[in-house]
Amino acid sequence: MDNKWVFRVSSAPDAGGGHVMRCLSIGRELQKYQSIHFLLCNNGKDWIDRIKYYGITASIYSSPLEMENTNVLVDGYTFSKLEIQSWRDKCKYMALIDDDEIAPNYIDLVISTRMDSIIYKNYKSQKILQGSKYALLASEYAGKVSTNDNKEVANILVSCGLIDSNNFTCQVLSALSECNFNGNVNIAIGSQALNLQQITNSINNYNFSINLVLDSNGLHNLLIKSDIVIGAGGVSLLERMSLGKPSVTIIAVENQRNQAIWSKNSGATILVDPLEKKFQNNLMNSINVLLKSKERRLEMGSKGAAIIDGKGVTRVARCMAFGEC
Question: How many C-beta atoms lie closer than 10 Å to residue 247's C-beta?
Fold first, then answer.
């Protein structure tokens, strides 16, 4: 396959960080074999420095002509069918990260993020990469599992998304207080989070220490240090599974539901649903389960690590570069 890839990625602030981060995970691995360039949305310029940190170029998208005679990876919900078709008309080969089994028939390579089963009849002649074998985690997650066997939980990571538009972080802090937790809490959140000021103002209200980590370049180091994790159900759920970290998972947006249910059914997390009337009570009870039971934490961590080996991007990149699928 030709050696230039263009990644057209949904990167506006209201899209969150998941699209860029999972494409960056692929790009870091794929650049070992081929050149990569990110094309970002008009208000996605804040991602450019982070992408360049890994030796990958990036710019703001201007026209389909930028796809001429290249290979293109598309990731985003806001792109119209007409836009994607115009890119396909220009490029040589197109891959698409598909969260909802709706990839158009002209896509050459479908990278499905569904961890559970998919309906293959929804696709035609495309190559399809699907399942936990292809989980899109950064290469550092292919390392050693760091399951802790500490009797007590001392360190908790709270990661409810960069924007956390539903303010789940404050609800988690309230639940931890109700559980009488008195250890350390790291909160990974974006500097543009809608409720950041409220979180900052509340820090001294609790009997546990709080450390705010703003705009972290990945969660790996924070996860390694954590005994349990409370967070959203996107890519970060797969990250904590791969490291053997027991967790409570909140469905922060609806497109996380299938993956969160799959993880729960696999025994790798405890799931709480904000749509349920007793959400806050369920959240507190779920956290209590992990705080009180070392056996439950170890069991959950080992199940997660057995499912996600962290080598998904290596497999995806080799398929994109050499067709080794």
Answer: 31
| 310 close to 242: Cβ distance less than 8 angstroms | yes
pTM reported for the whole predicted model: 0.89
Query: What DSSP string runs through 33-93?
Result: TSEEEEEE-TT-GGGHHHHHHTT-EEEE---GGGGTTSEEEEE-SS--HHHHHHHHHH-SE
Residues 6+ apart with CB under 8 A from 84: 74, 96, 104
Identity of the amino acid at 321 = A
Is the pLDDT higher at 140 or at 123? 140
Q: What is the pLDDT of residue 122?
A: 65
What would the CATH number be for the domain defined by 144-307?
Answer: 3.40.50.2000
All CATH 3.40.50.11190 domain ranges of the chain, comma separated, are 4-140+310-322
The boundaries of every CATH 3.40.50.2000 domain in the chain are 144-307
Asked if 11 contacts 40 with a C-beta cutoff of 8 angstroms, the reply is yes
Name the architecture of domain 4-140+310-322: 3-Layer(aba) Sandwich (3.40)
pLDDT digits (tens, 9 = 90+) for 143-162: 777 667 778 999 999 999 88
pLDDT at 1: 56
